[in-house]
Automatic annotation (TrEMBL):
It comes from the Bacteria. Gene3D superfamilies: Dihydrodipicolinate Reductase, domain 2, NAD(P)-binding Rossmann-like Domain. This is Saccharopine dehydrogenase family protein. Residues 4-137 form the Saccharopine dehydrogenase NADP binding domain. It holds the Pfam family Sacchrp_dh_NADP. Residues 141-389 form the Saccharopine dehydrogenase-like C-terminal domain.
Length: 403
């Protein structure tokens, strides 16, 4: 039915390509393009062997609008899934506008030289996408992505008003490496080393990085130390659900991970300020990325699971109500299915589902720039159960809201 162009051939891009190939009744022609074509070719060979589907590959530097435009003109896709890095969001959106192609990504734009991520840059494209009759869906991975679908679903079916939202994200997996990040190390470390931030009573409260933490009991896993971080979906959620009195994001980190990160930070390896090294300008964090294991290399011996969900408190029919909705995902099962670990899997599957809905569900396809919670959550929730990310829910359980 539709041609899709996927840009980015890392851990997430690989899962998106596998999952689109496994749904070739919707994604009838697939092209995977990235800066290093060899990575696309390797994934294409794996897909052919595992699912019997042939996909095309190409090289593109998506920082350069004209290169992406040329590729789009050559392949003529109906939509583009951007799973390169957040730095490429705006150039790829420009290329989509220039060629009349719908757009979806999994992370909001971040300038390379400032560790600052917010939606303002991409929301500014609203009128241009509307006028062009094109759709852009922003942040359609797991978090951002499914966490907003969960919140929208809770709002639609369980509450009259949402008051307290805690997004809780646990990775209880073991990849056997001393230190590695589960998605792009540069983006991951920039996110964690920033001050934390959460929403309370109409304003953002800023806290020193990793300074607020508590054990949270995750289903099927048990208690894990969890840290308050700023996470990008909070920005759109508090805008789209203005009754929220508080919204926070918690993520688990093991002690060894934090010790490594502290050391790397203390010696200046997480800095994004260029330094001179043997006559060349290098960015310490980019160099660090080059020596750390790539996220797509972690899958093979990864054991354990992830658990990501939303704990919500609010009002229904004048009464207090609590609701918890979550997904647990097993690293080894993901590897068996698509040769990936669960962090890449939980990001790539929702990206494929978002694209599938844009292409097949009339209600989901509308011109403009949208965050996922602005769209009908029901078909997305159904497809999560079908495509490998089944969810669970509990109503009126005691939630540890005060922590
Ligand atoms: P990786 O680093 O594994 O992969 C990134 C890919 O993008 C690589 O193939 C890289 O190519 C390619 N790329 C980088 N720059 C360019 C460019 N200028 N032109 C073309 N291709 C380029 O990252 P992940 O797969 O782990 O993450 C992909 C995206 O998913 C990121 O934006 C990340 O923030 C997001 N993410 C979202 C999550 C969510 O839940 N919403 C969770 C996890 C990740 P090369 O190999 O040549 O470097």
């Amino acid at each position: 039915m539709s041609k899709v162009l996927i840009i980015g051939a890392g851990g997430v891009g690989s899962v998106v390509a596998h999952k689109c190939a496994m749904n070739s009744h919707v994604f009838t022609e697939i092209m995977l393009a990235s800066r290093t074509q060899a990575k696309c070719d390797k994934i294409a060979a794996e897909i052919k062997e595992m699912h019997g589907v042939t996909i095309q590959t190409a090289r593109v530097d998506a920082d350069i609008v004209s290169e992406t435009v040329l590729l789009i003109k050559r392949f003529q896709p109906k939509m583009l899934i951007n799973v390169a890095l957040p730095y490429q969001d705006l150039t790829i959106m420009e290329a989509c506008l220039a060629t009349g192609v719908h757009y979806l990504d999994t992370a909001n734009y971040e300038p390379k030289d400032v560790a600052k991520f917010e939606y303002s840059w991409q929301w500014a494209y609203q009128e241009r996408f509307k006028e062009a009759g094109l759709m852009a869906v922003l942040g359609c991975g797991f978090d951002p992505g499914v966490t907003q679908v969960f919140t929208a679903y809770a709002n639609k079916h369980h509450f009259d008003e949402l008051h307290y939202l805690d997004i809780i994200d646990c990775n209880a997996g073991d990849h056997g490496k001393a230190f590695a990040t589960n998605f792009n190390p540069e983006i991951n470390i920039r996110e964690i080393t920033q001050p934390g931030r959460y929403w309370e009573n109409g304003e953002w409260i800023e806290i020193p990085a990793m300074s607020v933490h508590k054990p949270i009991d995750y289903p099927g896993i048990g208690p894990k130390e969890s840290y308050v971080l700023y996470h990008e979906e909070l920005e759109s959620l508090v805008k789209n659900f203005p009754t929220l009195k508080r919204a926070r994001f918690w993520m688990t980190f093991g002690q060894a991970y934090i010790t490594h990160l502290n050391v790397l930070e203390n010696v200046g390896m997480t800095s994004i300020k260029p330094i001179k090294f043997q006559g060349q300008d290098i960015v310490p964090l980019e160099f660090l990325k080059a020596v750390l294991p790539a996220p797509d290399s972690l899958g093979e011996n990864y054991s354990g699971q992830t658990s990501i969900g939303c704990q919500i408190k609010g009002i229904k029919d004048g009464e207090d109500k609590t609701y918890y909705v979550w997904n647990n995902c097993d690293h080894a099962a993901c590897y068996r299915e698509v040769r990936a670990q669960a962090v890449s899997y939980t990001t790539g599957v929702p990206a494929m589902i978002g694209a599938m809905l844009m292409l097949t569900n009339e209600e989901w396809m509308k011109p403009g720039v949208y965050n996922v919670e602005e769209l009908n959550p029901d078909p997305f929730m159904e497809l999560l159960n079908v495509h490998g990310l089944p969810w669970n829910e509990q109503v009126n359980v005691e939630l540890p809201h005060e922590y």
